[in-house]
Amino acid sequence: MTTEPRAAATLERPTTEQPVLVVDRLSLAFDDKVVLKDVSFSLLPGHTKILLGASGSGKSTILKLILGLLKPDAGTISVNGERVDNMTELEMMRVRADIGMVFQEGALFDSLTVAENVGYKLYEELHQPADEVRQRVEEVLGFVRLAEFIDRMPSELSGGQRRRVAIARAMAAKPGILLYDEATTGLDPITATTVDEEMVKLRDLEGVSSVIVTHQLRDAFFVATHEAIRDGNGLRIEPADAAKCDEAEFIMLREGLVAFEGNAAELRASKDPYIREFLS
Predict the structure, then answer these.
(1) Is 253 helix (H, G, I), strand (E, B) or coil?
(2) SS3 77
(3) How many CB atoms lie within 10 A of CB 34?
(4) Rounded to whole angstroms, how far apart are CA atoms 213 and 269?
(5) Are the C-beta atoms of residues 177 and 206 closer than 8 Å to each other?
(6) Mean pLDDT for back-to-back runs of 10 residues, the chain (280 residues)
(7) Phi, then psi, of 23 in degrees rounded to 5
(8) Of 93, 136, 230, 232, which sits with the fewest C-beta atoms within 10 Å of its C-beta?
(9) Do 157 and 114 form a contact (C-beta atoms < 8 A)?
């Protein structure tokens, strides 16, 4: 079978009016434990969904279902207009080409340099020429403000720098969707903010659609209420207006069910006792 290094290019990305991701009445149980029950939401291009909830509420499980690493018991998942919950592993590889994933610990290869980590997918899966890969690696490392670390080893980086390298690696193949699984966990607030800013920049400057799983409320609200602006005065991250804040929605999960869906202001204003306790 011949290799198709740019198979992702055949995917038709939705217009600005069509969701890039649709989760419809998703349910999953492991033996007698119900993990998700009738979970539904959709994600528009360039928008953000932030999944909140207690440990074990099903947040990370949703990401695994989107990636096809798990199959639901009921319900459907569509990515870029294609139903994926019933796809084979081979079919999912094509869909995953338009999805980047940032894991909690960064999951870098310790034996590879920063450049090799960031360019890994471009080399190994897309088989791009070395000079093109190097150019793209330099570009994305510049985007996350780590260009000078291109030939360092992961062991020479701080925790925050490793997470930003992981973001650079996830964006290297120019995916339309990025999934973040606890990307700021374990980082101090100042370092976590540098990671939050990269999420905001990718959404606002690159048009990336994102699903963020986190239990870090400070980071969730930062991403939801800030925007990246590039103009004649350079690049800056600043508080967003109400219309922009509406592009980021929170989904609160409770025991596998959607307990809330809405923007940051609506979440803060909720009188639900569970949500009040979670936010306190």
Answers:
(1) strand
(2) strand
(3) 15
(4) 21
(5) no
(6) 39 69 96 94 96 90 95 96 94 91 80 93 82 92 93 91 90 93 90 92 94 94 95 90 91 93 95 91
(7) -110, 120
(8) 232
(9) yes
- Let me know the angle formed at the C-alpha of 75 by 70 and 78, rounded to the nearest 5 degrees: 75
d(CA 68, CA 96): 9
For 51-84, b where at least 16 C-beta lie within 10 A, e where not — what string? bbbeeebbbbbbbebbbbebebeebebbbbeeeb
b/e code 97-132 from CB counts within 10 Å (16+ = b)? bbbbbbbbebebeeeebbbbbbbbbbeebbebeeee
pLDDT of residue 124: 79
- The C-alpha R_g of the chain, in whole angstroms, comes to 19
113 dihedral zone (left: phi>0; alpha: psi -120 to 50; beta): beta
For residue 237, list its beta bridge partners: 228
Helix axes 189-206, 159-171, angle to 10 degrees: 20
Pairing of strands 209-213, 48-53: parallel
pLDDT at 212: 97
- Name the strands in the sheet holding 209-213, side by side, starting at the edge strand that comes first in the sequence: 99-102, 177-181, 209-213, 48-53, 248-254, 257-262
| Measured distance CA(12)–CA(126) in Å, rounded | 18
Identify the pLDDT of residue 7: 38
The rounded distance, in Å, linking the Cα atoms of 175 and 255 is 31
How far is the C-alpha of 255 from the C-alpha of 155, rounded, in Å?
38
